[in-house]
Design goal:
Layout lengths: L2 E2 L3 H10 L2 E6 L5 H16 L3 E5 L17 E2 L10 E5 L9 H5 L5 E6 L10 E4 L6 H12 L5 H14 L10 H12 L4 H9 L4 H12 L2 E3 L4 E6 L1 H7 L10 H5 L6 E7 L5 E8 L6 H7 L3 E2 L3 E7 L2 H17 L1
Helix pairs in contact: 1-4, 2-4, 2-5, 4-5, 5-6
């Protein structure tokens, strides 16, 4: 099922017809968000376009293996003149953070995403919740339009798809996903080299963080929910970076018998808590749970940012998860 106000062909034509583009993705960007942002930026520059890439949080150290990462900058404090604003892998405008205020003047908005909770904002929106990654949609756009696909663009698309499918193993991975992976390899991706950078190049502090989180692991709801909490005090003591915790939730999600895993993080912005949820059973829709807290995402992976004390948020989220499992 595809929810959209425009076809990929119409979006491709808009990319041909305009000259100046600002490409953005959500705060705390993951591999899909950054890979898509950089891939489309490189592609449009190959077409002779003027392109600016923004993300409120820039590019974390762990993603600097992506060719062209240095193109991404943080948005300016004041609004600037923007012809076309493109949001990738971002379910709501607000998730663009500071970039949203900087593009108020945009004459056209293009919204490409795969989150089922996407609001469908923008003049041209293409939302495919069946796609396992926004990178897969972007590949289809580039391939169907006959746009350039250089080895650098292919690397970014492969990283986008691989990281959002758990290295091609999540349930929404399809034969088409593998076919695209093969096409990207033919376009120049060196799978061994790229995969090592994605999955085998973590800083030692990340392991210390995992050790600390496992020490506060909580099993609840009759052994069906696993969770851990990262407090600001733990962050200060360990000296970890925000990106260091990405993917650690999968460690507890993998425990036999666990249906839902929850990662609860006390943010530096006092009074705000970030939650990440992962489900192993499509009958337990964590997107529905996240939406109760004004978040969103996918059936098996979702999240939200919540105002409140971390202990109160933890209790409320765990109660909501157990209710969803048992009802």
């Amino acid at each position: 099922m595809t929810q959209n106000s425009a076809s990929l062909a119409e979006i491709a034509q808009a990319l041909r017809d305009h000259h100046r583009f600002t490409i953005m993705s959500h705060v705390r960007p993951d591999g899909d968000a950054l890979g898509c942002t950089i891939a489309l930026g490189l592609c449009l520059r190959q077409l002779g376009k003027e392109v600016t890439l923004w993300n409120e949080d820039g590019v974390a150290e762990k993603f600097r293996y992506l060719p062209g990462w240095e193109m991404v900058s943080t948005p300016p404090a004041d609004p600037v003149d923007v012809e076309v604003a493109i949001a990738l892998d971002t379910a709501s405008r607000q998730r663009l953070g500071a970039a949203l205020d900087a593009v108020k003047s945009a004459r056209l908005w293009i919204n490409i995403d795969h989150h089922i909770s996407n609001e469908g904002y923008g003049g041209l929106s293409y939302i495919d919740p069946v796609a396992p990654a926004t990178g897969q949609i972007l590949y289809d756009l580039i391939e169907s339009a006959g746009f350039p696909l250089t080895p650098q663009i292919a690397d970014n698309l492969f990283a986008a798809i691989s990281t959002d499918t758990g290295s091609f193993q999540y349930p929404n991975t399809t034969a088409r996903t593998y076919e695209i992976g093969a096409a990207l390899i033919r376009a120049g991706v060196k799978v061994g080299d790229l995969s090592q950078k994605m999955y085998e190049s973590f800083p030692l502090r990340r392991i210390y963080l995992l050790r600390a989180l496992l020490n506060v692991l909580k099993i609840s709801c009759d052994g069906r929910v696993a969770s851990f909490v990262l407090t600001r005090q733990m962050v200060a003591e360990l000296g970890v970076h925000p990106e260091d915790n990405e993917g650690l939730i999968d460690t507890i999600r993998a425990i036999d018998g666990i249906v839902v895993a929850a990662f609860i993080e006390e943010l530096a912005d006092v009074g705000k808590v970030r939650i990440s949820l992962r489900s192993k059973d499509p009958r337990v829709d964590v997107c529905k749970i996240a939406q109760r807290f004004r978040g969103g995402g996918h059936t098996l992976a979702a999240g939200a940012r919540i105002r409140g004390a971390v202990t109160e948020v933890e209790a409320g989220v765990l109660a909501a998860i157990c209710h969803e499992i048992t009802n």
